[in-house]
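For concreteness, we quote verbatim a single protein encoded this way:
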Amino acid sequence: MSAGDKAKDVIQQVAGKAEETVGKRTDDAELTAQGQKDQSMGEDRQNIEESKDAANS
């Protein structure tokens, strides 16, 4: 996994957390759900890449 890919995954997770927080504070269920989805997608991609790295070791 390249450093750029790691950074993208972390940024997506952080952005998702921010969306979720704003959604909760503004009672915007759609934004909250989107933030949770973004966090999950970032975590999933990170886990896949870590698995690939482990398999290649």
In short: The two ends are 12 Å apart (CA to CA). Residues 19 and 56 are 35 Å apart (CA to CA). Helices lie at 3-25, 29-56.
